[in-house]
Amino acid sequence: MDLAASGVATADDIGSSLDDDAPIMLTDLDTGERWPYWATLDARTEPGDELLAISPAVALTESHRYEVTINNLVTSNNTAVDRQLPMQWSFPVASADSLSGRLRSMVTNTEDLVPGFTVESVDNSSNPAVVRGTFELPNFLDNDGGPGGRFALDDNGLPTVNTTQPTWDAPFICLVGTEAESRPTVVYGHGLLGGAEETLSLSSISTLGGLNACGTDYVGMSRNDIPTVLNILGDLSGFAALADRLQQSQLAFVLLGRLVNDPDGFVSNPAFQIDGTPLLEADGAVFVGNSQGGILGGAASAVTNEWSRVVLGVPGLGYNVMLPRSSNWPRFEEVLNPAYPNAVDRVLAVELIQLLWDRGENAGYAQHLTSDPYPGISPKTVLLVEAFGDHQVANLATEKLARTIGAAVSTDALASGRATATDPLWGITPVPSFPTTMSVLSVWDFGTPAPPITNLPPLPPDYGNDPHGAGSSETGVLLQAITFLVTGEIIDPCGGGPCRGRQIDQ
User: Fold this and answer.
1) What was the pLDDT predicted at 81?
2) CATH class, range 3-93
3) Residues 428-436: contacts with CB within 8 Å, 24+ apart?
4) Full-model pTM
5) Architecture of the domain whose range is 99-123+140-500
C-alpha cells in the first residue's frame, strides 16, 4: 500500500485521522467517539513485508472496547490493495486493575511504613553536601531483590512479600544545603540504565533554586540490570523479570519520598540537620525525572501523595513507540536481531512485551496522573519539557503523553516553518495565560532539524546533533522548572514567543 495515495493520516497530519472519509477509522465503541491516530508503514521490515502500524495519538481509555475499520487502501499506482485480514475488527483495552493494580497494592500495603535507613557517608566539602546510604524496602520479588527477580503473587494475582528474604536495601544519594534552613527536596529519577549517582548532576538546581535532591536506582532499568537486559533481548520470554522489578523500583521512589517528607525519615538523622535544624522541609517533596526518569516518573507520581508537583524532562509514553525511533536502539538491536532474525517477528515481539512494560512506565498510569486519580490519591500538576527533534525520545511520544494528561502548550511554541506537520502540536490545547497552575508541555528548540515521520531514529548528519540533554544546562529551562517546583506556578521564560535554546552545533 501507499500511505499518501490512500490518504491515510500520518504523524504529520494526525487531524485527518478524524475526517469523515478517512480510509482508516479508530472508534471507541463505549462512547461512539472517533479516536485520533497516526499510521506508519514499518520501515524496519523488508519491502513487500511492511507492517501497517496504527498508533493512537492519545492513550486508549482503560476498559473500553475499540473498533478498527479499514477501507480503500491503494498502491502507488492507485490500484486496490489485496488484503488477507478483515476490514473491521474490535479489541478490548486493559483495565486499571490489570495495568496498575499490582503497584497500587504494594503502595497500599506500605502506606504506614517509614523505611529504616543507614547513612554510610557524608561529604561536607562541597555545596551542596552529599549524603550517601541505603534504605530498606519490602521485597515483593522471588529472589533477594536483585536483577532477574519475579513477583511472588498471592491467590488474587497481587504481589506478596517474600517470606524468605522479606527486605532488600536500595541505595540513595542526597544533595543537601549547607545552611541551617529547611528546603524542599527533589525526588529524582535518572536516565537510561543509569543510577542514583546521576542525582549529583542536580547541584546547579540545588544552588540556584534552594532545593535539596535525593535519588535512587530504577531497578529493572538501572546500570546493575544491564546484563539482565541484554539476556532478555536474546530471549524476550524473560521480559516479565524486567517489568516486575521495575514496579518494585516505583515503590522505592514512593518510599524515598516518604523518607524525605516524614519527621521520622531522613531528618531524624544528624546528617540531615545543622545545629538541630532539619534541612529537609516537612512534606516538601517534589519530583523530577529526566529521559528514562521522564518515561517512568509518571507511574510513581500517579500512585502516591508524597508529592504534587512533577517535572518530566524529555519524557514519553509507550516504549513500543519510542524504541524504533530512538538513536539508542541500534546498539540494543545488535543483541536482539541475531536472536530474532525475522524482521516481522521483531516488530511484533516489541509490541507484545509492551503489554507488560505498561505496568512499569507512564503508559499504564498517565490517565490517572492529572485527572481521574486513583482512589485516595490527589491529582498532580505536571511540567513536560520537550526538545524539538529529540534523537532519543521521539517528540511523537512526548506529545502523546501531553494529550493523554491534558497538558496545555504555548500558542507560539514553535516558529513558523520549523515543523513539517500540517498542524504542529495537534490536539494539545493552548495555555490561556502565564503564569499558570495548569499542566504544561514546554517545547524547546535548539535548532535541530524536524524529526522524521517514519519509525526510524533521527541520526546525524541528516538530522543534526541530538538536543536530548540540552535543556539540563539551558537557563530558561532551569528557571521554568525551579519556579514551578518552588511556587507551583509555571511561567513563560520566552516572552510569549517560541522557546529557543542555545544552538546545538550541527
Assistant:
1) 86
2) mainly beta
3) 428/399, 428/402, 428/403, 431/492, 432/408, 434/410, 434/490, 434/491, 434/492, 435/483, 435/489, 435/490, 435/491, 435/492, 436/408, 436/489, 436/490
4) 0.97
5) 3-Layer(aba) Sandwich (3.40)
